[in-house]
Protein backbone atom coordinates (compact mmCIF):
# COMPACT_ATOMS: atom_id res chain seq x y z
CA UNK A 1 0.00 0.00 0.00
CA UNK A 2 1.13 3.57 -0.67
CA UNK A 3 1.40 6.20 2.04
CA UNK A 4 -1.87 7.62 0.74
CA UNK A 5 -3.67 4.31 1.23
CA UNK A 6 -2.06 3.78 4.64
CA UNK A 7 -2.91 7.22 6.02
CA UNK A 8 -5.73 8.73 3.96
CA UNK A 9 -9.23 7.28 3.59
CA UNK A 10 -10.86 10.02 1.52
CA UNK A 11 -10.01 13.39 0.09
CA UNK A 12 -8.52 15.85 -0.02
CA UNK A 13 -11.60 17.85 -0.95
CA UNK A 14 -11.06 21.52 -1.74
CA UNK A 15 -14.10 23.25 -0.29
CA UNK A 16 -14.69 26.93 0.52
CA UNK A 17 -12.30 29.24 -1.34
CA UNK A 18 -12.41 33.03 -1.55
CA UNK A 19 -9.83 35.67 -2.49
CA UNK A 20 -7.50 35.12 0.48
CA UNK A 21 -8.48 31.83 2.13
CA UNK A 22 -9.20 28.18 1.37
CA UNK A 23 -10.10 25.05 3.31
CA UNK A 24 -9.17 21.44 2.61
CA UNK A 25 -11.14 18.51 4.07
CA UNK A 26 -9.77 14.99 4.60
CA UNK A 27 -10.70 11.73 6.26
CA UNK A 28 -7.71 9.90 7.73
CA UNK A 29 -7.24 6.33 8.93
CA UNK A 30 -6.41 7.33 12.47
CA UNK A 31 -5.70 10.16 14.86
CA UNK A 32 -3.26 12.51 13.15
CA UNK A 33 -2.02 16.01 12.45
CA UNK A 34 -2.76 17.12 8.90
CA UNK A 35 -0.69 19.77 7.16
CA UNK A 36 -1.45 21.61 3.92
CA UNK A 37 1.25 23.65 2.18
CA UNK A 38 0.69 26.06 -0.70
CA UNK A 39 3.79 28.03 -1.61
CA UNK A 40 4.90 30.04 1.40
CA UNK A 41 1.59 29.51 3.25
CA UNK A 42 0.90 26.44 5.35
CA UNK A 43 -1.54 25.38 8.04
CA UNK A 44 -2.18 22.36 10.24
CA UNK A 45 -5.18 20.83 11.99
CA UNK A 46 -5.67 17.98 14.41
CA UNK A 47 -8.22 15.36 13.46
CA UNK A 48 -11.51 14.98 15.28
CA UNK A 49 -13.34 11.67 15.48
CA UNK A 50 -16.96 10.77 14.81
CA UNK A 51 -18.03 7.17 15.47
CA UNK A 52 -14.54 5.83 14.85
CA UNK A 53 -13.86 7.92 11.71
CA UNK A 54 -11.20 10.63 11.73
CA UNK A 55 -11.52 13.99 9.95
CA UNK A 56 -9.64 17.25 9.62
CA UNK A 57 -10.45 20.58 8.04
CA UNK A 58 -7.29 22.58 7.34
CA UNK A 59 -7.83 26.31 6.87
CA UNK A 60 -5.32 28.38 4.89
CA UNK A 61 -5.37 32.17 5.21
CA UNK A 62 -3.26 35.06 3.91
CA UNK A 63 -3.32 33.87 0.28
CA UNK A 64 -2.85 36.32 -2.58
CA UNK A 65 -6.02 37.08 -4.58
CA UNK A 66 -6.14 35.81 -8.15
CA UNK A 67 -3.27 33.34 -7.75
CA UNK A 68 -3.02 29.65 -8.63
CA UNK A 69 -0.47 27.45 -6.88
CA UNK A 70 -0.03 23.75 -6.31
CA UNK A 71 -0.42 22.36 -2.81
CA UNK A 72 0.48 19.24 -0.84
CA UNK A 73 -1.17 17.37 2.01
CA UNK A 74 0.83 15.57 4.70
CA UNK A 75 -0.42 13.31 7.49
CA UNK A 76 1.88 13.13 10.51
CA UNK A 77 4.72 14.50 8.40
CA UNK A 78 4.32 12.09 5.48
CA UNK A 79 3.08 13.47 2.15
CA UNK A 80 -0.10 11.73 0.98
CA UNK A 81 -1.27 14.12 -1.78
CA UNK A 82 -0.56 14.36 -4.62
CA UNK A 83 0.06 10.65 -4.92
CA UNK A 84 3.43 9.60 -6.35
CA UNK A 85 3.32 8.71 -10.02
CA UNK A 86 -0.22 10.05 -10.36
CA UNK A 87 -1.26 10.52 -14.01
CA UNK A 88 -3.20 13.64 -13.06
CA UNK A 89 -1.87 17.20 -12.81
CA UNK A 90 -0.73 18.46 -9.44
CA UNK A 91 -3.68 19.76 -7.40
CA UNK A 92 -3.98 23.52 -7.12
CA UNK A 93 -5.73 26.12 -5.03
CA UNK A 94 -6.87 29.05 -7.19
CA UNK A 95 -8.06 32.08 -5.22
CA UNK A 96 -10.76 34.38 -6.46
CA UNK A 97 -10.11 37.78 -7.98
CA UNK A 98 -12.55 40.68 -8.18
CA UNK A 99 -13.71 41.31 -11.73
CA UNK A 100 -12.45 38.04 -13.19
CA UNK A 101 -15.33 36.37 -15.07
CA UNK A 102 -16.82 33.66 -12.89
CA UNK A 103 -17.33 30.10 -14.06
CA UNK A 104 -18.93 27.18 -12.28
CA UNK A 105 -20.34 23.72 -12.90
CA UNK A 106 -23.56 22.34 -11.43
CA UNK A 107 -25.66 19.21 -11.41
CA UNK A 108 -27.30 16.56 -9.26
CA UNK A 109 -28.19 12.89 -8.94
CA UNK A 110 -25.08 10.75 -9.14
CA UNK A 111 -24.95 7.11 -8.15
CA UNK A 112 -21.68 5.27 -7.69
CA UNK A 113 -21.18 2.15 -9.80
CA UNK A 114 -18.17 0.94 -11.73
CA UNK A 115 -16.90 2.78 -14.79
CA UNK A 116 -16.49 -0.34 -16.92
CA UNK A 117 -18.88 -1.68 -19.53
CA UNK A 118 -21.15 -3.21 -16.87
CA UNK A 119 -21.55 0.04 -14.95
CA UNK A 120 -21.97 2.10 -18.10
CA UNK A 121 -24.66 -0.22 -19.44
CA UNK A 122 -26.66 -0.07 -16.23
CA UNK A 123 -26.25 3.63 -15.37
CA UNK A 124 -24.63 5.33 -18.36
CA UNK A 125 -21.32 7.18 -18.39
CA UNK A 126 -20.49 9.26 -15.32
CA UNK A 127 -20.61 12.82 -16.66
CA UNK A 128 -18.62 14.17 -13.71
CA UNK A 129 -15.80 11.71 -14.35
CA UNK A 130 -15.81 12.39 -18.11
CA UNK A 131 -15.48 16.11 -17.33
CA UNK A 132 -12.67 15.41 -14.86
CA UNK A 133 -10.73 13.41 -17.45
CA UNK A 134 -11.11 16.26 -19.94
CA UNK A 135 -10.04 18.95 -17.43
CA UNK A 136 -7.00 16.83 -16.65
CA UNK A 137 -6.28 16.57 -20.39
CA UNK A 138 -6.47 12.79 -20.16
CA UNK A 139 -8.88 12.40 -23.10
CA UNK A 140 -9.76 14.27 -26.28
CA UNK A 141 -13.03 16.17 -26.70
CA UNK A 142 -15.68 15.00 -29.14
CA UNK A 143 -15.29 18.31 -31.00
CA UNK A 144 -11.74 19.64 -31.01
CA UNK A 145 -12.93 23.02 -32.33
CA UNK A 146 -15.37 23.67 -29.47
CA UNK A 147 -13.68 26.00 -26.95
CA UNK A 148 -16.18 24.98 -24.26
CA UNK A 149 -14.67 21.49 -24.30
CA UNK A 150 -11.13 22.84 -23.87
CA UNK A 151 -11.34 25.33 -20.97
CA UNK A 152 -8.44 27.74 -20.50
CA UNK A 153 -8.68 27.57 -16.71
CA UNK A 154 -10.36 25.55 -14.01
CA UNK A 155 -13.86 26.55 -12.87
CA UNK A 156 -14.25 28.57 -9.71
CA UNK A 157 -16.82 26.23 -8.18
CA UNK A 158 -18.65 22.93 -8.52
CA UNK A 159 -22.20 23.16 -7.11
CA UNK A 160 -23.71 19.78 -6.26
CA UNK A 161 -27.48 20.17 -5.98
CA UNK A 162 -28.54 17.01 -4.21
CA UNK A 163 -28.47 13.23 -4.27
CA UNK A 164 -24.70 13.22 -3.95
CA UNK A 165 -25.27 9.79 -2.40
CA UNK A 166 -28.19 7.36 -2.52
CA UNK A 167 -29.02 6.03 0.94
CA UNK A 168 -32.09 4.13 -0.23
CA UNK A 169 -31.23 2.82 -3.71
CA UNK A 170 -27.93 1.10 -2.95
CA UNK A 171 -25.50 -0.43 -5.43
CA UNK A 172 -24.21 -4.01 -5.42
CA UNK A 173 -20.97 -2.90 -3.78
CA UNK A 174 -22.79 -1.02 -1.03
CA UNK A 175 -25.18 -3.92 -0.47
CA UNK A 176 -22.23 -6.28 -0.05
CA UNK A 177 -20.86 -4.04 2.69
CA UNK A 178 -24.25 -3.87 4.41
CA UNK A 179 -24.65 -7.65 4.22
CA UNK A 180 -21.22 -8.11 5.81
CA UNK A 181 -22.53 -6.29 8.90
CA UNK A 182 -26.15 -7.34 9.33
CA UNK A 183 -29.10 -9.35 7.99
CA UNK A 184 -30.50 -7.59 4.90
CA UNK A 185 -33.78 -9.47 5.30
CA UNK A 186 -34.46 -7.26 8.33
CA UNK A 187 -35.31 -3.53 8.28
CA UNK A 188 -34.01 -1.33 6.79
CA UNK A 189 -33.04 -4.14 4.39
CA UNK A 190 -30.54 -2.92 1.78
CA UNK A 191 -30.99 0.73 2.74
CA UNK A 192 -28.57 2.52 5.05
CA UNK A 193 -28.91 2.08 8.78
CA UNK A 194 -26.22 4.03 10.61
CA UNK A 195 -23.21 6.34 10.43
CA UNK A 196 -20.80 3.52 9.57
CA UNK A 197 -22.77 2.70 6.44
CA UNK A 198 -22.96 6.36 5.44
CA UNK A 199 -19.18 6.65 5.81
CA UNK A 200 -18.72 3.70 3.48
CA UNK A 201 -21.22 5.16 1.00
CA UNK A 202 -19.30 8.45 0.82
CA UNK A 203 -16.06 6.53 0.30
CA UNK A 204 -17.62 4.72 -2.67
CA UNK A 205 -18.94 8.00 -4.09
CA UNK A 206 -15.72 10.02 -3.91
CA UNK A 207 -12.82 7.59 -4.26
CA UNK A 208 -12.56 7.07 -8.04
CA UNK A 209 -9.12 8.50 -8.99
CA UNK A 210 -10.40 10.95 -11.62
CA UNK A 211 -13.20 12.33 -9.47
CA UNK A 212 -10.92 12.38 -6.44
CA UNK A 213 -8.40 14.50 -8.34
CA UNK A 214 -11.20 16.79 -9.55
CA UNK A 215 -12.56 17.37 -6.05
CA UNK A 216 -9.05 18.07 -4.77
CA UNK A 217 -8.48 20.89 -7.26
CA UNK A 218 -11.89 22.53 -7.94
CA UNK A 219 -13.74 24.07 -4.95
CA UNK A 220 -17.16 22.59 -4.20
CA UNK A 221 -20.41 23.54 -2.52
CA UNK A 222 -23.27 21.14 -1.80
CA UNK A 223 -26.87 20.82 -0.65
CA UNK A 224 -28.84 17.68 0.06
CA UNK A 225 -31.95 16.32 -1.62
CA UNK A 226 -34.21 13.42 -0.74
CA UNK A 227 -32.03 10.43 -1.70
CA UNK A 228 -29.23 11.68 0.55
CA UNK A 229 -31.70 10.59 3.24
CA UNK A 230 -34.60 8.72 1.55
CA UNK A 231 -36.85 9.09 -1.48
CA UNK A 232 -39.62 11.67 -0.93
CA UNK A 233 -38.05 12.92 2.30
CA UNK A 234 -40.57 15.24 4.00
CA UNK A 235 -43.16 15.00 1.24
CA UNK A 236 -46.00 15.47 3.72
CA UNK A 237 -46.99 15.14 7.36
CA UNK A 238 -48.47 11.70 6.66
CA UNK A 239 -45.20 10.56 5.03
CA UNK A 240 -43.19 11.77 8.02
CA UNK A 241 -45.47 10.10 10.56
CA UNK A 242 -45.27 6.85 8.63
CA UNK A 243 -41.46 6.97 8.69
CA UNK A 244 -41.27 7.88 12.37
CA UNK A 245 -43.45 4.89 13.23
CA UNK A 246 -40.82 2.46 11.88
CA UNK A 247 -38.12 0.83 13.96
CA UNK A 248 -35.29 2.16 11.77
CA UNK A 249 -36.10 5.71 10.72
CA UNK A 250 -34.62 7.41 13.78
CA UNK A 251 -31.24 5.81 13.13
CA UNK A 252 -31.41 6.75 9.46
CA UNK A 253 -32.24 10.41 9.89
CA UNK A 254 -29.70 10.89 12.69
CA UNK A 255 -26.93 9.22 10.69
CA UNK A 256 -27.97 10.95 7.47
CA UNK A 257 -27.97 14.48 8.87
CA UNK A 258 -24.91 13.89 11.03
CA UNK A 259 -22.84 12.51 8.16
CA UNK A 260 -24.13 15.27 5.88
CA UNK A 261 -22.76 17.86 8.31
CA UNK A 262 -19.35 16.13 8.34
CA UNK A 263 -18.96 15.20 4.67
CA UNK A 264 -20.87 17.95 2.91
CA UNK A 265 -22.00 20.92 4.98
CA UNK A 266 -18.83 21.68 6.95
CA UNK A 267 -17.06 22.77 3.77
CA UNK A 268 -19.98 24.93 2.64
CA UNK A 269 -19.35 27.47 5.37
CA UNK A 270 -17.05 30.47 5.25
CA UNK A 271 -14.33 30.76 7.95
CA UNK A 272 -16.53 33.15 9.95
CA UNK A 273 -19.55 30.87 9.64
CA UNK A 274 -17.53 27.86 10.76
CA UNK A 275 -16.28 29.70 13.84
CA UNK A 276 -19.89 30.53 14.73
CA UNK A 277 -21.17 27.02 14.04
CA UNK A 278 -22.07 25.25 17.29
CA UNK A 279 -20.52 21.91 16.34
CA UNK A 280 -17.33 23.18 14.74
CA UNK A 281 -16.80 25.65 17.58
CA UNK A 282 -16.71 22.63 19.90
CA UNK A 283 -14.17 20.92 17.62
CA UNK A 284 -11.94 24.01 17.69
CA UNK A 285 -12.33 24.41 21.45
CA UNK A 286 -11.04 20.91 22.21
CA UNK A 287 -7.57 21.05 23.73
CA UNK A 288 -4.92 18.41 24.12
CA UNK A 289 -3.36 15.78 21.89
CA UNK A 290 -6.12 13.25 22.39
CA UNK A 291 -9.12 13.03 20.08
CA UNK A 292 -12.52 13.69 21.54
CA UNK A 293 -15.31 11.58 20.01
CA UNK A 294 -17.87 14.06 18.75
CA UNK A 295 -20.21 11.24 17.68
CA UNK A 296 -22.67 11.67 20.58
CA UNK A 297 -22.73 15.45 20.10
CA UNK A 298 -23.37 15.11 16.37
CA UNK A 299 -26.09 12.52 16.98
CA UNK A 300 -27.83 14.81 19.47
CA UNK A 301 -27.48 17.72 17.05
CA UNK A 302 -28.95 15.71 14.15
CA UNK A 303 -31.86 14.49 16.25
CA UNK A 304 -32.63 18.03 17.38
CA UNK A 305 -32.47 19.72 13.97
CA UNK A 306 -34.68 17.00 12.47
CA UNK A 307 -37.38 17.60 15.07
CA UNK A 308 -36.81 21.35 15.35
CA UNK A 309 -35.49 22.55 11.97
CA UNK A 310 -35.64 26.23 12.94
CA UNK A 311 -32.71 25.65 15.32
CA UNK A 312 -30.18 25.28 12.47
CA UNK A 313 -29.83 26.62 8.94
CA UNK A 314 -28.47 24.44 6.13
CA UNK A 315 -28.96 27.17 3.51
CA UNK A 316 -26.08 29.52 2.73
CA UNK A 317 -24.87 32.24 0.39
CA UNK A 318 -21.65 32.98 -1.46
CA UNK A 319 -20.74 36.41 -2.79
CA UNK A 320 -18.48 36.82 -5.83
CA UNK A 321 -17.76 40.58 -5.71
CA UNK A 322 -20.49 42.39 -7.70
CA UNK A 323 -20.73 39.65 -10.32
CA UNK A 324 -22.76 36.97 -8.58
CA UNK A 325 -24.68 36.30 -5.41
CA UNK A 326 -25.24 32.56 -5.06
CA UNK A 327 -28.06 31.67 -2.67
CA UNK A 328 -28.30 27.94 -1.92
CA UNK A 329 -31.65 26.95 -0.39
CA UNK A 330 -32.53 24.00 1.81
CA UNK A 331 -35.78 22.79 0.24
CA UNK A 332 -36.00 19.54 2.25
CA UNK A 333 -35.25 19.81 5.97
CA UNK A 334 -36.85 23.25 6.46
CA UNK A 335 -40.31 22.21 5.33
CA UNK A 336 -43.40 23.00 7.37
CA UNK A 337 -45.71 20.01 6.96
CA UNK A 338 -48.78 20.98 8.99
CA UNK A 339 -51.64 20.32 6.51
CA UNK A 340 -53.33 23.55 7.60
CA UNK A 341 -50.19 25.66 7.10
CA UNK A 342 -48.03 23.78 4.57
CA UNK A 343 -44.89 25.43 3.24
CA UNK A 344 -41.69 24.35 1.52
CA UNK A 345 -39.85 26.79 3.81
CA UNK A 346 -40.75 27.36 7.45
CA UNK A 347 -41.24 31.02 8.48
CA UNK A 348 -37.63 31.50 9.61
CA UNK A 349 -36.23 30.00 6.43
CA UNK A 350 -38.67 31.97 4.28
CA UNK A 351 -37.69 35.23 5.99
CA UNK A 352 -33.99 34.42 5.49
CA UNK A 353 -34.51 33.74 1.77
CA UNK A 354 -36.54 36.94 1.43
CA UNK A 355 -33.52 38.86 2.77
CA UNK A 356 -31.12 37.19 0.32
CA UNK A 357 -33.21 37.84 -2.79
CA UNK A 358 -31.79 41.25 -3.63
CA UNK A 359 -30.24 42.90 -6.65
CA UNK A 360 -27.12 45.07 -6.85
CA UNK A 361 -25.20 42.22 -8.51
CA UNK A 362 -24.81 41.29 -12.16
CA UNK A 363 -26.42 37.88 -11.65
CA UNK A 364 -28.54 36.47 -8.83
CA UNK A 365 -28.19 32.68 -8.80
CA UNK A 366 -30.55 30.65 -6.62
CA UNK A 367 -29.52 27.05 -6.05
CA UNK A 368 -32.42 24.81 -5.05
CA UNK A 369 -32.25 21.04 -5.41
CA UNK A 370 -35.86 21.03 -6.63
CA UNK A 371 -36.64 22.98 -9.82
CA UNK A 372 -38.57 26.13 -8.99
CA UNK A 373 -40.15 26.04 -12.46
CA UNK A 374 -41.10 22.53 -13.54
CA UNK A 375 -42.64 21.72 -16.90
CA UNK A 376 -46.01 23.50 -16.89
CA UNK A 377 -48.01 20.27 -16.93
CA UNK A 378 -46.08 18.87 -13.98
CA UNK A 379 -46.34 22.13 -12.05
CA UNK A 380 -50.12 22.28 -12.38
CA UNK A 381 -50.46 18.60 -11.50
CA UNK A 382 -48.48 19.20 -8.32
CA UNK A 383 -50.62 22.21 -7.39
CA UNK A 384 -53.73 20.10 -8.04
CA UNK A 385 -52.44 17.25 -5.86
CA UNK A 386 -51.71 19.57 -2.94
CA UNK A 387 -55.20 21.07 -3.05
CA UNK A 388 -56.77 17.63 -3.47
CA UNK A 389 -54.83 16.21 -0.49
CA UNK A 390 -55.85 19.28 1.47
CA UNK A 391 -59.53 18.42 1.12
CA UNK A 392 -60.63 20.47 -1.89
CA UNK A 393 -62.80 17.53 -2.99
CA UNK A 394 -63.63 16.23 0.46
CA UNK A 395 -62.18 13.49 2.64
CA UNK A 396 -62.15 10.79 -0.03
CA UNK A 397 -60.46 13.17 -2.47
CA UNK A 398 -57.95 14.04 0.26
CA UNK A 399 -56.94 10.40 0.65
CA UNK A 400 -56.60 10.10 -3.11
CA UNK A 401 -54.48 13.26 -3.29
CA UNK A 402 -52.12 12.00 -0.58
CA UNK A 403 -51.68 8.66 -2.34
CA UNK A 404 -51.11 10.44 -5.64
CA UNK A 405 -48.39 12.78 -4.40
CA UNK A 406 -46.50 10.00 -2.63
CA UNK A 407 -46.83 7.56 -5.54
CA UNK A 408 -45.48 9.87 -8.25
CA UNK A 409 -43.24 12.26 -6.26
CA UNK A 410 -45.45 15.34 -6.46
CA UNK A 411 -43.50 17.30 -3.85
CA UNK A 412 -41.63 20.09 -5.61
CA UNK A 413 -42.24 23.84 -5.33
CA UNK A 414 -45.51 23.51 -7.27
CA UNK A 415 -46.85 21.23 -4.53
CA UNK A 416 -46.22 23.93 -1.93
CA UNK A 417 -48.16 26.78 -3.46
CA UNK A 418 -47.78 29.13 -0.52
CA UNK A 419 -44.00 29.09 -0.84
CA UNK A 420 -44.05 29.08 -4.63
CA UNK A 421 -46.25 32.17 -4.80
CA UNK A 422 -44.11 34.05 -2.25
CA UNK A 423 -40.78 33.31 -3.92
CA UNK A 424 -42.17 33.96 -7.40
CA UNK A 425 -43.28 37.45 -6.30
CA UNK A 426 -39.90 38.11 -4.69
CA UNK A 427 -38.05 37.02 -7.83
CA UNK A 428 -40.24 39.31 -9.95
CA UNK A 429 -39.49 42.22 -7.60
CA UNK A 430 -35.75 41.62 -7.95
CA UNK A 431 -36.09 41.42 -11.74
CA UNK A 432 -38.12 44.63 -11.82
CA UNK A 433 -35.46 46.56 -9.91
CA UNK A 434 -37.60 46.90 -6.78
CA UNK A 435 -34.97 45.27 -4.53
CA UNK A 436 -31.86 47.17 -5.55
CA UNK A 437 -30.32 47.43 -9.01
CA UNK A 438 -31.86 44.79 -11.23
CA UNK A 439 -29.39 42.05 -12.15
CA UNK A 440 -28.93 40.86 -15.70
CA UNK A 441 -30.47 37.53 -14.69
CA UNK A 442 -32.32 35.90 -11.85
CA UNK A 443 -31.40 32.27 -12.50
CA UNK A 444 -32.64 29.27 -10.55
CA UNK A 445 -30.19 26.33 -10.68
CA UNK A 446 -31.67 22.92 -9.91
CA UNK A 447 -31.53 19.16 -10.36
CA UNK A 448 -33.60 16.22 -9.01
CA UNK A 449 -35.92 15.46 -11.95
CA UNK A 450 -33.57 13.32 -14.10
CA UNK A 451 -33.97 15.50 -17.16
CA UNK A 452 -32.41 18.84 -18.06
CA UNK A 453 -33.76 22.04 -19.60
CA UNK A 454 -33.81 25.83 -19.58
CA UNK A 455 -37.02 27.81 -19.08
CA UNK A 456 -37.60 31.55 -19.44
CA UNK A 457 -40.20 33.31 -17.27
CA UNK A 458 -42.11 36.58 -17.46
CA UNK A 459 -44.92 38.26 -15.49
CA UNK A 460 -48.39 37.07 -16.43
CA UNK A 461 -50.05 40.46 -16.74
CA UNK A 462 -47.20 42.39 -18.36
CA UNK A 463 -47.95 45.29 -16.02
CA UNK A 464 -44.54 45.07 -14.36
CA UNK A 465 -41.77 45.37 -16.95
CA UNK A 466 -38.78 43.27 -16.01
CA UNK A 467 -35.22 44.49 -16.36
CA UNK A 468 -33.78 41.02 -15.71
CA UNK A 469 -34.08 37.78 -17.61
CA UNK A 470 -35.64 35.19 -15.28
CA UNK A 471 -34.40 31.66 -15.94
CA UNK A 472 -34.70 28.14 -14.63
CA UNK A 473 -31.73 25.92 -15.53
CA UNK A 474 -31.80 22.23 -14.61
CA UNK A 475 -29.02 19.66 -14.80
CA UNK A 476 -30.00 16.13 -13.79
CA UNK A 477 -28.76 13.43 -13.67
CA UNK A 478 -24.97 13.39 -13.47
CA UNK A 479 -25.23 9.60 -13.46
CA UNK A 480 -28.59 7.93 -12.88
CA UNK A 481 -30.72 8.08 -16.05
CA UNK A 482 -34.44 7.54 -16.29
CA UNK A 483 -35.82 4.41 -17.88
CA UNK A 484 -37.14 4.77 -21.44
CA UNK A 485 -40.74 4.59 -20.20
CA UNK A 486 -40.18 7.35 -17.64
CA UNK A 487 -38.52 9.50 -20.29
CA UNK A 488 -41.61 9.18 -22.45
CA UNK A 489 -43.93 10.05 -19.56
CA UNK A 490 -41.83 13.10 -18.72
CA UNK A 491 -41.83 14.25 -22.35
CA UNK A 492 -45.64 13.91 -22.49
CA UNK A 493 -45.92 16.17 -19.46
CA UNK A 494 -43.51 18.64 -21.05
CA UNK A 495 -45.17 19.27 -24.40
CA UNK A 496 -48.52 19.59 -26.09
CA UNK A 497 -51.80 19.50 -24.20
CA UNK A 498 -50.29 18.54 -20.84
CA UNK A 499 -49.94 22.18 -19.78
CA UNK A 500 -53.54 23.23 -20.52
CA UNK A 501 -54.96 19.99 -19.09
CA UNK A 502 -52.90 20.42 -15.93
CA UNK A 503 -54.06 24.03 -15.64
CA UNK A 504 -57.68 22.93 -15.89
CA UNK A 505 -57.09 20.39 -13.14
CA UNK A 506 -55.52 22.97 -10.83
CA UNK A 507 -58.34 25.44 -11.54
CA UNK A 508 -60.88 22.76 -10.63
CA UNK A 509 -59.56 22.93 -7.06
CA UNK A 510 -59.18 26.74 -7.11
CA UNK A 511 -55.39 26.99 -7.16
CA UNK A 512 -54.36 30.65 -7.39
CA UNK A 513 -52.80 31.85 -10.64
CA UNK A 514 -49.04 32.14 -10.59
CA UNK A 515 -47.61 35.67 -10.84
CA UNK A 516 -45.40 34.54 -13.73
CA UNK A 517 -45.58 32.31 -16.77
CA UNK A 518 -42.75 30.31 -18.30
CA UNK A 519 -41.84 28.20 -21.28
CA UNK A 520 -39.03 25.94 -22.36
CA UNK A 521 -36.18 27.74 -24.10
CA UNK A 522 -34.07 24.57 -24.37
CA UNK A 523 -34.86 20.91 -23.77
CA UNK A 524 -35.82 18.70 -22.19
CA UNK A 525 -33.11 16.09 -22.68
CA UNK A 526 -32.32 12.99 -20.64
CA UNK A 527 -28.58 12.43 -20.96
CA UNK A 528 -26.29 11.91 -18.00
CA UNK A 529 -24.72 15.37 -17.99
CA UNK A 530 -23.02 18.15 -16.10
CA UNK A 531 -23.84 21.82 -16.65
CA UNK A 532 -21.28 24.62 -16.94
CA UNK A 533 -22.06 28.30 -16.43
CA UNK A 534 -19.96 31.38 -17.17
CA UNK A 535 -20.79 35.03 -16.52
CA UNK A 536 -19.01 38.09 -17.86
CA UNK A 537 -20.78 41.34 -17.05
CA UNK A 538 -24.39 41.02 -18.23
CA UNK A 539 -23.55 38.01 -20.38
CA UNK A 540 -24.36 34.50 -19.25
CA UNK A 541 -23.62 31.26 -21.05
CA UNK A 542 -24.56 27.72 -20.02
CA UNK A 543 -23.74 24.43 -21.67
CA UNK A 544 -24.25 20.79 -20.76
CA UNK A 545 -21.63 18.09 -21.31
CA UNK A 546 -21.73 14.30 -21.26
CA UNK A 547 -19.39 11.36 -21.66
CA UNK A 548 -19.31 9.29 -24.85
CA UNK A 549 -17.69 5.87 -25.10
CA UNK A 550 -15.71 5.41 -28.30
CA UNK A 551 -13.30 2.54 -27.68
CA UNK A 552 -12.56 2.45 -23.95
CA UNK A 553 -15.38 2.50 -21.40
CA UNK A 554 -13.07 3.88 -18.74
CA UNK A 555 -11.87 6.75 -20.94
CA UNK A 556 -15.00 8.40 -22.36
CA UNK A 557 -14.59 11.55 -24.42
CA UNK A 558 -16.43 14.73 -23.48
CA UNK A 559 -19.25 15.92 -25.76
CA UNK A 560 -21.64 18.87 -25.62
CA UNK A 561 -25.35 18.11 -25.24
CA UNK A 562 -26.86 21.60 -25.44
CA UNK A 563 -26.13 25.27 -24.79
CA UNK A 564 -27.94 28.51 -23.95
CA UNK A 565 -26.50 32.03 -24.09
CA UNK A 566 -27.44 35.65 -23.41
CA UNK A 567 -25.84 38.27 -25.64
CA UNK A 568 -23.44 41.04 -24.57
CA UNK A 569 -26.40 43.13 -23.39
CA UNK A 570 -27.89 40.29 -21.38
CA UNK A 571 -30.71 39.62 -23.82
CA UNK A 572 -31.95 36.05 -24.30
CA UNK A 573 -31.88 34.34 -27.69
CA UNK A 574 -34.84 34.87 -29.99
CA UNK A 575 -37.68 32.50 -29.08
CA UNK A 576 -37.97 29.57 -31.42
CA UNK A 577 -41.30 28.26 -32.54
CA UNK A 578 -42.61 25.22 -30.72
CA UNK A 579 -42.38 23.16 -33.91
CA UNK A 580 -38.71 24.06 -34.36
CA UNK A 581 -37.89 23.08 -30.78
CA UNK A 582 -39.82 19.85 -31.15
CA UNK A 583 -38.00 18.93 -34.37
CA UNK A 584 -34.65 19.69 -32.75
CA UNK A 585 -35.58 17.50 -29.79
CA UNK A 586 -36.52 14.62 -32.07
CA UNK A 587 -33.23 14.99 -33.93
CA UNK A 588 -31.31 14.99 -30.63
CA UNK A 589 -33.04 11.81 -29.48
CA UNK A 590 -32.37 10.15 -32.85
CA UNK A 591 -28.73 11.24 -32.69
CA UNK A 592 -28.39 9.79 -29.21
CA UNK A 593 -29.75 6.43 -30.34
CA UNK A 594 -27.33 6.31 -33.25
CA UNK A 595 -24.23 7.63 -31.48
CA UNK A 596 -24.60 6.23 -28.00
CA UNK A 597 -22.93 2.87 -27.83
CA UNK A 598 -23.83 2.60 -24.16
CA UNK A 599 -27.26 1.19 -23.38
CA UNK A 600 -28.83 3.21 -20.59
CA UNK A 601 -31.62 1.97 -18.40
From TrEMBL:
Residues 8-93 form the DUF7800 domain. Transmembrane segments: none annotated. It comes from the Bacteria. InterPro entries: DUF7800, Metallo-depent_PP-like, PhoD-like_MPP, PhoD-like_sf. Residues 153-478 form the PhoD-like phosphatase metallophosphatase domain. This is Alkaline phosphatase D family protein. It comes from Nocardioides baculatus.
Amino acid sequence: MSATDDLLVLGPLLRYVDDTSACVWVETRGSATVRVERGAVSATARTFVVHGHHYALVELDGLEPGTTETYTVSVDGEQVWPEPRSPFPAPVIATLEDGRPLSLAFGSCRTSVTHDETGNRSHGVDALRAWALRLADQVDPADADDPDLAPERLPDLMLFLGDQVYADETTDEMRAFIESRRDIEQPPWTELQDYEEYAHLYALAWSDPANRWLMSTVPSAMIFDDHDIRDDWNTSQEWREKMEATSWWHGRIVAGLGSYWVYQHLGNMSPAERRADELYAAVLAHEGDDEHDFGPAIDAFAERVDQHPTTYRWSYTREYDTQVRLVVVDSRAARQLDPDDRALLDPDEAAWLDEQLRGDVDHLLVGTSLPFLLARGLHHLEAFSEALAGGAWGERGGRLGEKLRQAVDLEHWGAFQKSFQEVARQAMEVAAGERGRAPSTVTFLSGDVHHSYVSEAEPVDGARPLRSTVLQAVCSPIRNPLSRNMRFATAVLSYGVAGPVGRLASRSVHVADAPLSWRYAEGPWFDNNLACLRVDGPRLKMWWVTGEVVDDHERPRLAKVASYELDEDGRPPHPEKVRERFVRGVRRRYRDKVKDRVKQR
